[in-house]
Specification:
By secondary structure, the chain is α/β, with parallel strands linked by helices. It is 36% helix and 24% strand. The strands form two sheets. Strands 2, 3, 4, 7, 8, 9, 10, 11 and 12 form a nine-stranded mixed beta sheet that branches. Strand 5 and strand 6 form a beta hairpin. Helix 1 crosses helix 2, helix 7 runs antiparallel to helix 8 and helix 8 packs antiparallel against helix 9. The chain is globular and about 50 Å long.
Length: 283
């Protein structure tokens, strides 16, 4: 087997800060969290995951509950949709690099799929972006999945349903009948800096909309002040794409807040994990 050499690699701006920078310690940390996450039977074919994106000490245990569900499975590609927390002027962004680098190795970017997506919806390639919310999911994928995969990284500045619907439909169109070899991942935290009691109320509303398979509702509840998810556009995008590809069910498999790690219940961030799948009786 020939080793692929990439001339243009996105270096990690967060390794050693948001998650361990030492490859052996990182692998052991992720493996431990996956081991400790409960094994949940999903009654159907898994098509997507929703996972939080804070530092591993805060949200890693909740994220592991999602990634445990695909442990040992193989996908040719993974589409990760996240928010873009930094100031860019385009609604949808991706990397201009050939590969992402984490301490666990390189992940090639699926330029072919990005080219096909860009024929359907404007996507701006950027160089050396500082965004953490997409990268934070990659070590989990590298340790959980049974085979190497290519990556389709998509970052949203525009969190409206219009953009989520357009992008979700474009993803489904490009994947088409080959969608079985692709895993969709939405990266999102929930409420930010409310008390624990307030966060639980706000987060429950968003999680209920996810389980109702309601991408419009995920966006709407924040507009109405009843819920909050910083990656609501990413969640809605993945729900739209998964539904267009045949998924019909979603289940929340984990919930927590930063208070679980810090003990501070006065200003917490909420974290949820969920799986999106096509039910067995509809296979």
């Amino acid at each position: 087997m020939h080793r692929v050499i990439f001339d243009d690699v996105r270096p990690s701006p967060i390794a050693g800060q948001w998650y361990p920078g030492n490859p052996d310690y990182l692998a052991a940390t992720v493996d431990r969290m996956l081991d400790e996450a409960p094994a949940v039977r999903v009654p159907g074919r898994i098509m997507g995951l929703i996972a939080p994106h804070a530092g591993y000490v805060y949200s890693g245990a909740v994220a592991a509950r999602a990634f445990r569900l695909v442990r040992g499975m193989s996908f040719e590609r993974v589409v990760v949709v996240s928010p873009m927390h930094h100031v860019y002027f385009d609604p949808i962004l991706t990397t201009a690099h050939q590969a992402y680098q984490t301490p666990l190795g390189l992940i090639p970017v699926d330029r072919e799929m990005l080219t096909e997506l860009a024929r359907r919806i404007p996507i701006k390639p950027v160089v050396r972006d500082p965004e953490h919310s997409l990268e934070i999911e990659l070590p989990f994928l590298q340790r959980a999945l049974g085979e190497p995969f290519s990556l389709v990284p998509l970052m949203l500045r525009d969190q409206t349903y219009r953009t989520a619907e357009r992008l979700g439909q474009a993803i489904a169109e490009v994947l088409g009948p080959e969608s079985g070899s692709t895993l969709l991942v939405a990266s999102s935290d929930l409420s930010h800096f409310y008390t624990q009691a307030q966060a639980e109320v706000l987060d429950r509303v968003v999680l209920e909309r996810i389980e109702a398979f309601d991408p419009v509702g995920v966006i709407r509840v924040e507009d109405e002040g009843r819920g909050f998810a910083c990656g609501r556009g990413a969640i809605a995008t993945v729900l739209v794409a998964a539904r267009a590809l045949g998924a019909d069910s979603a289940r929340v498999v984990g919930y927590g807040t930063s208070a679980d790690a810090t003990g501070d219940t006065q200003r917490v961030v909420g974290y949820g994990a969920a799986v999106i799948y096509k039910s067995e009786d509809r296979e």
